[in-house]
Amino acid sequence: QLVESGGGLVKPGGSLRLSCADSGFTFSEYYMTWIRQAPGKGLEWVSYISSSGSNIYYADSVKGRFTISRDNAKNSLYLQMNSLRADDTAVYYCAGDLTVVSAKWFDPWGQGTLVTVSS
Amino acid sequence: DIQMTQSPSSVSASIGDRVTITCRASQAISSWLAWYQQKPGKAPKLLIYAASSLQSGVPSRFSASGSGTDFTLTISSLQPEDFATYYCQQANSFPITFGQGTRLEIK
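Structure tokens for the assembled complex are given below, as produced in the milestone run.
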């Protein structure tokens, strides 16, 4: 239902924009999130956006560098990543919070897209 | 930030065994807890939400309990497809945080 794209190899200090396209549920009604996983490591929450896009939250590790956004008309979620660092290397997952109360547990998930920051 | 600590970090068990994984929050989170299963190369899968509610489609051998700071996930009779890594996640407040994971391996 969720398909990420936009990952790849980028040099330190560079930028990348991830996309997450929905098919199969009413995207505009639900909160969405980005979660990442560095190679061989655990899950790290990155950012969260309300259904309308008016409420946004970031992890301290990405605040000021990453921007989450959505286009409900295109059923799409985005993550603009600037000033990338080696420790941003990870698989990035988008996931949906389909609860009506913004409970912040996540299902469904995309398959993930790998971002590698290296010179 | 709320720290989530899982134990054990890894566990070896046999088919048919009962396994319990523990998750402790650094402050009370009521029942704002979820459990996920992740297999290698795959996205996590939501198993449990609201500390003890089974997600649709998840086998009933999975159960969970707890509130406040201490939570458990139990698999009553391990099946081959259950060998994976399990994560707890607090949903009480931002930043959302995960436990470090518990790797469940075949003995």
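Chain A touches chain B at residues 33, 42-45, 48, 57, 59-60, 93, 95, 99, 103-107, 109-112 (CB under 8 Å). Strands of chain A lie at 2-5, 8-10, 16-22, 31-37, 43-49, 56-58, 66-71, 76-81, 90-97, 113-117. Further analysis is deferred to the final report.
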